[in-house]
Each structure stands twice: as C-alpha cells, then as structure tokens.
Amino acid sequence: MSQILAVGEQRDGVVRGATREVVSAAASTASELGGDAHALLLGGAGMGEAAQELGRFGAAVVKVAEHEALSGYQGEGYARVLAEQIRSGGYAAVFFPGTIQGKDLAPRVAALLDVPLAQEATEISVRDGGLEIVRPIYAGKAFARVRIDAAPVLVSLRPNVFPAEERDGAGTVEAVAVEVDSSGWKARTVEFQAQGGDIPDVAEAAVVVSGGRGLKDPEHWGILEELREAIGSQAGLGASRAVVDAGWRPHAEQVGQTGKTVAPKLYFAVGISGAIQHLAGMRTAGTIVAVNRDPDAPIFKVADYGVVGDLFEVVPRLTQEIRALKSEG
Fold this sequence. Notes:
Blueprint: E1 4-7, E2 10-11, E3 14-15, H1 17-33, E4 37-43, H2 47-51, E5 59-66, H3 75-89, E6 93-97, H4 100-113, E7 117-121, E8 123-127, E9 130-137, E10 142-146, E11 153-157, E12 172-175, E13 207-211, H5 222-231, E14 235-239, H6 241-245, E15 266-270, H7 276-282, E16 287-292, E17 305-308, H8 311-328
Parallel strand pairs: 1-4, 1-6, 4-5, 5-12, 6-11, 7-11, 13-14, 13-15, 15-16, 16-17
Antiparallel strand pairs: 2-3, 8-9, 9-10
Helix pairs in contact: 3-4, 5-8
C-alpha cells in the first residue's frame, strides 16, 4: 500500500481552496498506486472542525496538529512539524499547494528531509509503479517530464489546475500531538496584509477582470476597477505579464504561466492580445469575454464571447449596463 500525504493550508482558521485541490489530486493518485490519501492541517485550537470537510475530497485520514504557536503560518515551525510527520508516516509522496505559502514551505521541508522537490506540477501520472510529473520550465516556454528517484516524492501542485472533486464517504479526523519550541526560531511571521484590501485574490475570485497593454497607461486602470466594482465583491483584478513587467500593476495580480493560474466562472480579458504565456494561466475559466481592437488577436481563439472594438468605449458601456441591471434587481 502506498499512502500520499496532502499538506493543507489555512488562513485564520479557514481552509483555503488550494487545499481541496491537493487532497483530491492525492486521493486520485493514491488510488492508482493502491493506497490511500491522508491530509495534514496545522493550526491553532479549533482546526479539527474545519478539517472535517477534507474527507469529502478523498482524504481517508485527516490529521490535525493544533498548537497556539502554529495558529498562523510560521515557515520554520511548520517545516519542522511537517518533516517529523512525514518521517513517521512513511509516505510514498507528499503533495503541497503551489501557493505563495506552499512555495515557501515545500523547499524548507525538502531541505530537512534531504530529498528533491518538483514544483509547479501541472500533471501527475502513475508510470511503472512510480510518479511522473509534468512541470513548466524556461518561464513556461517548455514542459519537463520528471521522475524523482527518492522517497518520499515531494511535489507542489500549481493552483487551479487540478480539480477539487468531492467523493462519497468522509475521512477520519485524528488529532496529532506535536511539540513546538518557538524559542529557537530565527524568523517569525507577525502579520499578513492583503495587498488588494477587500478585493479577493485573483487566484480565488469567482470573476476576474484582467487588463493588458491595450489600456495604454496605468492611469487608465480605473476603467477596469469600475467594472470590477459594478460586478461586486466576488470580482478580482488581474493583469498580463507585460503590464506587470512595466510596473503598472503588482505581481500578485499577474495571470499566466509565470504568474497565477485562475479558474473563475467568468474572465474578462481587456486589451490583452492573448500570448501563450497568458493563455496558460486563464484558459480554465468557465466563460471568457475578450475585448480587443485587433480582430486577429489570439485571445479570440479561446474566448466564448468576443468584442472587437475600442475598450475605452466598450468597457464603460458594459459597466453602465451591469449597474443598470443590478439596480433593477
């Protein structure tokens, strides 16, 4: 039997969406290997209740380590607790969310266990009894197929690529006793500040309004912000790589192979030509609406709805119509 451990992620006691994706991927992969998926969630008091939902996504056992020092993310402390649990569990593989937190945590754990780490996996399959991992290289210009000759196999999964699928049954929740000595920590996380205020993270928003170089100037970004506000609190702001590289928008909003992968129900691509790098990060959206002056722009090949026109005329009109519809409701 081969067990796979899915590392969970929480913020303020709430399980984050990427955790469900990792647990579901671990369950599917473990089933192919003839084993089970376990989930591990670290946090403060009360995490056991929040962790119960992970059983619905395929975790046969959901382990919860509650300790006041672990209530918020602490890279050094989390890594040490995780490394100990992985050693004692004898897992064949460990899956991490490829979030900002996961990108900090997974390498720490790999260093403590002295094993390689495959990051940003976009596909995982079972070949000859082992795992074969597909991950982007050269800033997304190519993909590598990787097999790790070490145990356990550590992999971080790119968010919004692996679907979170609910399954029948519920996993068993087990409390894990851990010893945490925070006195020797060399660094501590003291506070998280949301860069966009009340605006949801682009990777988790139900609707994403993204802009590109077609906006011509960062001062014109207000057009997109007004559209986002008209849609409502479930909408987030995104940007193309060119816009971020130019310093118009923060990297946290970048959508694409070297940014974030998004899977909203609705995606607006405004003034975005549709380079391969950008398409790789948003093609999994439910419905794609593109606004561009160039009728031959690549974005129209993946768009469900396309508007060929001047975004400075189209977007304000769209914003106006959305506000009118909402006021009527």
